[in-house]
């Protein structure tokens, strides 16, 4: 067999002590189509970004044609023929398709007509139905993706990396995309594509590599895999992880209390489509979904962070009352709080102390007498929640940025829980949190349900869903597609529902 | 220090840094003061010091209004225009025979409407504050010149003794200084001790987090511009009293940049969420001394503007180095 075109040996990527990719070997041969599979956070994107020079590796070696490479930025990688097509497009929205295709190659006097004719010919040669005159901002997600792909093809790359290329495409466009991949393969281009769609991977790839928790699980010819073995590799975990060891039975699950929230035919843009489900008091409802399944968007619509379309948005009923929140303020006052997945961007106030952060939530729903902030109430509230959530800090007036991720997350949670909610939505409550804090946060979540509050936990970590939920919902393509009781749910079943 | 201090309750390292930044400005102010006192004849004259303090008071009052807006991560470029037009209208009404109470109320009402409109544009129409206030400044000026006042310079009516008394003295202290102190104290209490003051800090710190926490960010934004417009009216009335005239051409001067200069120089970051009234006071001191000294030095208006512009630029550069805007690594997709 020929030597691989790109070879990674013992490559790791470390973010502040946390490994996104750990000691992975990966080979890409000339002219092969290589599928990269794994759960959210398995390290797929990070691995490919290291090849394309978007991020730099912490350890290990990467060779191209036997020569060690160390790209500092994507431009260097491109020079050597490695292009990456991102999940989030990197097009200039205000320019036309043709201008985007030829971005960076404009001549001093750009003959626009020639540019558009060339673009038109090029796009039709790829069978892409995109108008070169259209401004990119007017295109849908799928068409943007096509332009992005066309740009990579045009640059004559030897290696093209696609990050979730088909997530936004329609079946017809997917068909074109696969035939394009086929033609590229015949031209000797090597392709890496990251996907959640197992069928696609099985259908078009020559080889499959599976990552889990940043580590290599399996890498072999596609013929040696089938759907079940892939799913088993993707989710199989060592059960030594005690935190997530306990598998709940149906008997342990809490019985549903009164219906707190019902979502009917909720829609917004392309992310949420006719989503319907209900949440009950005194229960933890787990919501699992892969990226792009619309779970965060759905949660944000419920909490008023995003506004849904007034005509086609569907209906939300909270405590039996039809509601449509334009701002989170009303939702919070009604008792719906949302704990964001991104605590730095949407969670805490970084210039404030722990106490001020927690108290900020308190004074929204519980205005102090005369509108005067009370130092003693602030102290009392902070003490109470620091005790309940085991927030560890030298002193409550320390700035929140000085805390560890787990303690920051606890402060953000405390800020929301002081608002006396009736429905709490946790979006990835333990992302970037140390193991000890995970256990404590889980305990808090269980405690909330025990006290009769409706809890929705969104997570892309299957064991977390399984260990917490009294009821499991699976979201795919903008809607809840399946519901499991804890007894019947297994990682395989959930994953199967999420990807098909 | 009070436990509910918002900006100052930071960790020790940052607290030391902040004190340093503030005290550097304060130190420079002291150096300038000493230098001018020695080198410039007439600088230390009682008359000059008096006028320095008075001029500084107006700037300081406007600076406090601007400070409240900037802490909430906004900016009000229409402030000086609002000040000139609302005051000019009040005085013009009085000259036209309207009673002082209704004239003042109408002027105050005009300022309030301006503040509400700007707040609406920024909070609900979601126009960036810098453009909304810049455009509104022109609109207010044009509207005022067209419909409210027909002269550029309006003199105070002869019989308005109470108006002149606004800039008198109390126990030897010029009243404008006392007004400045009063506005500063009120703003200090508002920002530090009230629920809404807290909200303004939260919005400037992290607007999205503030929104998700349930803070009514839109009404709060309107409130900020309402406050700043009302304070501008107050500053306008004091100016009118001091100068015995209202010159609406001040709206087209660089005064609003002086106000921003005071705020930024004092250490209120333009990225919002930090600082307080103390910063405005320190910034006001330095700018006041600088402007007064340059006037005595008989620097031309052009040179003065050049110096002010340069100082503002330096202050903003230092600000952006000391308080870098959030450099969030955009972690899109999964890792």
TrEMBL record, chain A:
Keyword Translocase: yes
Keyword Transmembrane found: no
Any single GO CC term annotated in Swiss-Prot or TrEMBL for this entry: plasma membrane
SMART domains reported in the protein's UniProt record: AAA
Domain ABC transporter: 6-238, 247-499
Membrane topology: Peripheral membrane protein
Keywords of this entry: ATP-binding, Cell membrane, Membrane, Nucleotide-binding, Repeat, Sugar transport, Translocase, Transport
Compartments where located: Cell membrane
Family in the record: Belongs to the ABC transporter superfamily.
UniProt-recorded name of the protein: ABC transporter-like protein
Natural source organism: Nitratireductor indicus C115
UniProtKB/TrEMBL annotation, chain B:
Xref: Pfam families: BPD_transp_2 (PF02653)
Parts forming coiled coils: none
Any GO MF annotation of the entry: transmembrane transporter activity
Protein's membrane topology: Multi-pass membrane protein
Primary location class: membrane
Keywords: Cell inner membrane, Cell membrane, Membrane, Transmembrane, Transmembrane helix, Transport
Transmembrane segments: 24-43, 49-70, 77-95, 101-122, 129-148, 168-191, 225-248, 254-273, 280-297
Record's GO cellular component terms: plasma membrane
Keyword Cell division appears in the UniProt entry: no
Subcellular location: Cell membrane
InterPro entries registered for this protein in UniProt: ABC_transp_permease (IPR001851)
Identification of the protein by name: Inner-membrane translocator
């Amino acid at each position: 067999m020929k030597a691989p075109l790109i070879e990674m040996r013992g490559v790791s990527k470390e973010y502040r002590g946390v490994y996104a990719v750990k000691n992975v070997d990966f080979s890409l041969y000339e002219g092969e189509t290589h599928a990269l599979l794994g759960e959210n956070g398995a390290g797929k994107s990070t691995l490919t970004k290291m090849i394309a020079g978007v991020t730099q590796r912490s350890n290990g070696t990467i060779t191209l044609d036997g020569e060690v490479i160390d790209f500092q930025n994507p431009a260097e990688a491109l020079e050597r023929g490695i292009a990456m097509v991102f999940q989030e497009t990197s097009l200039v929205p205000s320019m036309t398709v043709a201008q985007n295709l030829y971005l960076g190659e404009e001549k001093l006097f750009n003959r626009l007509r020639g540019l558009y004719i060339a673009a038109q010919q090029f796009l039709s040669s790829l069978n892409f139905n995109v108008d070169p005159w259209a401004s990119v901002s007017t295109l849908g997600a799928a068409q943007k993706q096509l332009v992005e792909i066309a740009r990579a093809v045009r640059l004559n790359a030897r290696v093209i990396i696609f990050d979730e290329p088909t997530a936004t495409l329609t079946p017809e466009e997917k068909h074109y995309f696969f035939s394009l991949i086929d033609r590229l393969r015949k031209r000797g281009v090597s392709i890496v594509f990251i996907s959640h769609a197992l069928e696609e991977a099985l259908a078009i790839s020559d080889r499959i590599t599976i990552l889990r928790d940043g580590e290599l699980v399996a890498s072999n010819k596609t013929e040696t895999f089938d759907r079940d073995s892939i799913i088993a590799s993707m989710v199989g975990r060592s059960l030594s992880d005690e935190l997530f060891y306990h598998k709940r039975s149906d008997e342990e699950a809490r019985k549903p209390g009164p219906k707190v929230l019902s979502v009917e035919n909720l829609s917004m843009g392309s992310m949420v489509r006719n989503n319907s489900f209900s949440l009950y008091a005194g229960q933890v409802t787990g919501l699992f979904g892969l990226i792009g399944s619309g779970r965060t968007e759905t949660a944000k619509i419920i909490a008023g962070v995003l506004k849904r379309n007034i005509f086609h948005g569907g209906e939300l009923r909270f405590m039996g009352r039809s509601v449509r929140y334009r701002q989170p303020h009303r939702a919070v006052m009604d008792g719906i709080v949302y704990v964001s997945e991104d605590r730095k961007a949407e969670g805490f106030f970084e210039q404030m102390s722990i106490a001020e952060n927690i108290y900020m939530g308190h004074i929204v729903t519980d205005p102090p007498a005369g509108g005067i902030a009370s130092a003693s109430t602030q102290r009392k509230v902070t003490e109470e929640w620091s005790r309940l959530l085991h927030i560890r800090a030298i002193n409550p007036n320390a700035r929140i940025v000085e805390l560890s991720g787990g303690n920051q997350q606890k402060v953000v949670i405390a800020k929301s829980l002081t608002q006396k909610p009736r429905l709490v939505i946790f979006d990835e409550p333990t992302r970037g949190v140390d193991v000890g804090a995970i256990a404590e946060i889980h305990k808090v979540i269980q405690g909330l349900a025990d006290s009769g509050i409706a809890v929705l936990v969104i997570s892309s970590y299957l064991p977390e869903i399984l260990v917490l939920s009294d009821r499991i919902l699976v979201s795919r393509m903008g809607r809840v597609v399946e519901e499991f009781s804890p007894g019947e749910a297994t990682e395989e079943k959930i994953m199967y529902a999420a990807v098909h | 220090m009070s436990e509910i201090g918002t900006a100052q309750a930071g960790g020790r390292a940052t607290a030391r840094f902040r004190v340093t930044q503030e005290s550097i400005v304060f130190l420079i102010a002291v150096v300038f003061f000493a230098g001018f006192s020695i080198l410039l004849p007439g600088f230390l004259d009682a008359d000059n010091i008096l006028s320095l303090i008075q001029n500084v008071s107006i700037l300081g009052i406007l600076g406090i209004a601007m400070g409240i807006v900037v802490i909430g991560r906004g900016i009000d470029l229409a402030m000086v225009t609002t000040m000139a037009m609302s005051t000019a209208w009040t005085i013009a009404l009085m000259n036209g025979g309207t009673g002082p109470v209704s004239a003042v109320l109408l002027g105050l009402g005009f300022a309030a409407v301006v503040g509400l409109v700007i707040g609406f544009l920024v909070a609900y129409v979601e126009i960036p504050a810098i453009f909304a206030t810049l455009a509104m400044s022109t609109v207010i000026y044009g509207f005022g010149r067209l419909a409210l006042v027909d002269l550029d310079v309006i003199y105070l009516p002869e019989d308005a003794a109470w108006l002149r008394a606004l800039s008198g003295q109390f126990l030897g202290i010029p009243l404008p200084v006392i007004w400045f102190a009063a506005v500063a104290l009120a703003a200090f209490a508002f920002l530090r001790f009230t629920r809404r003051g807290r909200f303004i800090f939260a919005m400037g710190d992290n607007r999205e987090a503030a929104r998700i926490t349930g803070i009514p960010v839109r009404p709060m934004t309107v409130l900020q511009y309402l406050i700043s417009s009302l304070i501008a009216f107050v500053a306008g009335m004091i100016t009118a009293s001091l100068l015995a005239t209202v010159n609406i051409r001040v709206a087209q001067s660089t005064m609003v940049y002086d106000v921003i200069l005071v705020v930024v120089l004092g250490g209120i970051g333009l990225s919002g969420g930090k600082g307080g009234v103390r910063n405005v006071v320190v910034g006001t001191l330095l700018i006041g001394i600088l402007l007064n000294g340059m006037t005595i030095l008989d620097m031309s208006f052009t040179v003065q503007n050049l110096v002010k512009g340069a100082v503002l630029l330096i202050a903003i550069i230092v600000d952006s180095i000391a308080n870098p805007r959030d450099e969030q690594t955009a972690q899109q997709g999964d890792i």
